[in-house]
């Protein structure tokens, strides 16, 4: 649950990725506004193919990929899938416990604090001491830069990533709070 300044309370859950989420992926990856800082929008057929491969990969126990769908309940009691948060273990620097993190949201749900809350929750669930979370944000995506600053990430460097000028952000988990028994 979250509440922003002059915004209604938005209740949400993070649910595991399932076949029923293919339409959400198609809506996200084919929307030019959502893809503005990522790349060219994809066709529904291309997204469907990508989604099926992703679904198989995330079903593998040792895939190192975690997707959670952000499901909100706003004015109605019917949950609506509005985006996702993902973690992907970095195989290049596996010894460093490096994990890439990212979020995609439908445009109507951007700017409401959902990305912040969802990433905060998934990092708490999936982190270990020494864990390094990395995010790559387009150089001109100022909202994403602000998000990672708020989450305690620091600016590492500017580079070209997937043919786009990006800022690399990182956050290392030093220790994890113990759970009360």
Distance between the termini: 24 Å
Secondary structure: helix percent = 25-40%
Please provide the ordered H/E string of secondary-structure elements. EHHEEEHEHEE
Number of distinct helices? 4
Number of strands: 7
- Report the mean per-residue pLDDT as an integer: 86
Strand numbers in spatial order across the main sheet = 1-2-3-4-5-7-6
Proportion of residues in extended strands: 25-35%
Please identify the structural class as seen in this structure: alpha+beta
Report the uncertain regions: none
Judging from the principal axes of the Cα atoms, what is the shape? globular
Largest sheet features: 7 strands, mixed
For the CA atoms, what is the radius of gyration?
Answer: 16 Å
Top keywords for this entry?
181 residues; alpha+beta; 25% helix; globular
Can you offer a commentary on this structure?
The chain has 181 residues and is of the alpha+beta class. Helix content is 25%, strand content 31%. It has 4 helices and 7 strands; from the N terminus they run βααβββαβαββ. It has a 7-stranded mixed sheet with strand order 1-2-3-4-5-7-6, sandwiched between helices. The longest helix is centred in the first third of the chain and has 16 residues. 20% of the residues are buried.
